[in-house]
User: What shape does this take?
Amino acid sequence: MPSGENPFSNQWQTVSSRWGHRLHAMCSYMAMFPPNLPHYFISRCTEPGDLVLDPFCGRGTTPLEACLLGRVGIGNDMNELAYALTKAKTYVPPAGELTQRLSQLAQGYQSPPEARSLLHEYQSLSGRVAKHQQQYPALYQPGMDKEDWERLQGILTKLRQKYATLPGMPYYRDEEYDRTGLSSENGYTEDHHHSIWLFFHPDTLRQLVYLKSNLGSDSRDAFIRAVVLGILHGRGRFYLSLPMPNTFSLTPRYTLSYSYRHRLILPHKDVFQCLKAKLQLLGLLGSSPRKKGIKKAVDLDSYVPGEALKEDIRNLPEALAPVLKRYGRRPRLLVTSPPYLGVIRYGLYNWIRFWFLESGSETGVGLDDGHKTPESYLAFMREAMRACHDIMDDHSLSAWVIGYVTARGIPHLNLAKAVWE
Assistant: This one.
């Protein structure tokens, strides 16, 4: 290539960020890049059967896009959530196996008989308004008559007390605290009860606890687990939680004040029906209605399985060696976006998903996004690039997506330029 000539363009930026296979939308994730970016490089720089690596893969966008294009996508990330999503996307089980396993799990769950009358009373009182709240923001919700809503809270307390006595359920104590004050003043702490009770109807929560205990490590269960992570919280017919305005995990104290201020209702969701509907939306269990203007592929005709790892980038050459030996070749392309400089706290914003994974990463300890100074970040990036150099093929290409950083305590910094230099 002549000096100064760039064979690439920013053509990928002209494609809608909503373009891509439906599997990319399995679960929301902070600071992800759109699938059209890795698609651009994979389609131009590799051939079917080549290995494509993303050492900081996040929710698995690069490895999934590689697998969809007939390449072997390899994703690595220390984040337990990222690993769970990438593991599912790099080995998609046949639809028949997913249907069979989901049916088996559903048949194994039963609501406690002693709670049926309370469940019926709660559903009768809340059903219509709860459905409306899942569809529209709090500003446009019709709300509920205050007297009926307070009656509903009484039924909810009785349900929680019954479900809290069942095996495996999180601890619950009905202690009084100011539910109406500001989030900084309402006095809520986990001394009252596990904060997870604030987000899910008791029967929905018990179904989640059941799935936590019964989902194993095979490819079917890994995929179902990842789909659960995608529907845990948000607002809409697939989501299982209180209808909150965001799909990242809000703090318990804020959620408590917000829900009382808007008289939000915990919807009684059947997790198995929501899973089935989400799998259908992903194109894995037959066709599903498509929203106007959104064009997403559902076929897996060219898909080949990939690999998922959960390693410190500095240990990746050693960890990946057996995998590369099995394939008999090294990656020809690397597409990645490394963690930025102390900007995003993945553990904090995903604590509900980490609860479901039973992971110790709720606080973000040990993740690669913890660098607080430019010096420590650049030292880490030198180590990361050295490790990737040891992994990649001698004639490979690498695309690193690095942006500007503007955050409290960090001066405006062009990270891409600093890393390049």
